[in-house]
């Protein structure tokens, strides 16, 4: 994403299966702004693909003279841009010995995350050596997904052994990060909502302290991400926007407001975050650097990220999130899923978790239905087969 923008390219492709099994290997397609394709470009590309009747119609004749391999010079420019995001260099200087354990989970993060942490000024970074070598078989984990607690086991074991303060693990293609923070003698795994809330809280606090907030700044989250991010935005008078699931929609909002408003940061519950607008996709190099700075800031105040999270819950109310995945495979599975969704639309629940349902958002019909007043408002987002139920006690 950065290279597309830096080199003024028309687009880009990244081949990856990330933390998924190799059968899922495919590619992400990016447009000239560095964001993944959204409408109408995504539909136009697929329309071209569908015109191809046979693989024999495709010319595989290349011109090697047109291939230009980029090197470390792009990495250097990128890392300097990341370093410029720092909001508390003096704090990092005081807390440079903050003990950090980092694992790339056999992925690409090893190439840039340690360099970026060093660039920020952190001098006490420990790598999980067993997971430091890129290996597509991911021999030390069942799944190299930082959302899975088991993926961080080796890192947490090392952190306990050396009395570290922070654990960070990036996924194989280096765009998402999972973290564990110290709580006494133990470590607490934070989910994506909690990590995003701590990061946004730090960013908005420092922007406010530094006198940089003008009322024209904004943050973005996806519709399935915690409302705590919006609570924080409201506290600081920062504009806030919801988008459909997928970081391409966050990139699209940044593009829409380019030159008009200033993007501070954004994130999604699936452990993907972004600070600054020179990259247009979730970025674990940026995220690790800014999360480490958040931890240093907390330590400098004589507290910790875990304690700050609890303080946020006291201030705004307690948030607890749980993700349940229901898998239905194949054509029959797709039909089963649609039937479930149809049933929810026809017979929506009146109560969830002991609290009355007071609002239903249907992103397929683009209607926000207030059940208390019976008022219906349009949802200004692309259509998607998603239903959300909001209850009287503030649950979603």
UniProtKB/TrEMBL annotation:
Alphabetized SUPFAM superfamilies for the sequence: Phosphoglucomutase, first 3 domains
Family matches, as Gene3D superfamilies: Alpha-D-Glucose-1,6-Bisphosphate, subunit A, domain 3
EC number: 5.4.2.2
UniProt keyword annotations, A-Z: Isomerase, Magnesium, Metal-binding, Phosphoprotein
Annotated GO MF terms: magnesium ion binding; phosphoglucomutase activity; phosphopentomutase activity
GO BP of this protein: carbohydrate metabolic process; purine ribonucleoside salvage
Alpha-D-phosphohexomutase alpha/beta/alpha domain span: 1-53, 78-183, 191-314
InterPro entries according to UniProt: A-D-PHexomutase_a/b/a-I, A-D-PHexomutase_a/b/a-I/II/III, A-D-PHexomutase_a/b/a-II, A-D-PHexomutase_a/b/a-III, A-D-PHexomutase_CS, Alpha-D-phosphohexomutase_SF
Broadest EC class assigned to this enzyme: isomerase
Cofactor section: Mg(2+)
Transmembrane feature ranges: none
Family: Belongs to the phosphohexose mutase family.
Protein name per its UniProtKB record: Phosphoglucomutase
